[in-house]
Amino acid sequence: MTRFRESVRSLLREQVLDAAYRLVAAEGWSGLRMTSIARAAGISRQTLYNEFGAKEAIGNALVQRELEGFLIGIERELDAHRGALEEAAAAGVGYTLQQTVDNPLIKSVLVAARGGEDDLLAYLTTRTEPVFGTAMAMLDAYATEAWPDVDAESRGLAVETVVRLTVSHIVQPVAPPAETAARIARITARIAYPGGT
């Protein structure tokens, strides 16, 4: 019975997050109301409040779900270039930057933020712990295994640099994704291997 309840709860959460995703992608975060999310998810407002408590919790869950999808894609890109750190970094960063261009939720958040209207962007800029903490932990663990010859301090600096620069270019792009990815990858490789590889 407990497993059944957990499955139902998981399905409910996904249903709510799917509905919220569609609404945010179409209308932005700032005007989104719990009533609209409940209606779009096909549940009562009370059920929504019981499950999430507040709109901010839905925002956090949306960001976490998107981040998990990104990290799976990044790992796939890194694996394809595991033999060379700079190429792997370029592939991972390039994937991330291109996905943010193509992702309707992120596109909506960034467009609204440029108009000064969207506070979901705070999850990338001021309330960054879920994004930065998760991304840096995953990348540090990956780099430890893939490039064991990089010392811990250099690895930590390289991981923090690649994450922070990538997020910065998501929020405020200055060049096409491939060009930016190549630059960030060069910086990362120089930090990891200061004397050259």
TrEMBL record:
Keyword match Signal: no
Residue ranges of DNA binding: 33-52
Keywords: DNA-binding, Transcription, Transcription regulation
Residues spanning the membrane: none
Residue ranges annotated for the HTH tetR-type domain, each copy included: 10-70
Domain of life (superkingdom): Bacteria
Pfam families per the UniProt record, alphabetical: TetR_C_35 (PF18556), TetR_N (PF00440)
Annotated protein name in UniProt: TetR family transcriptional regulator
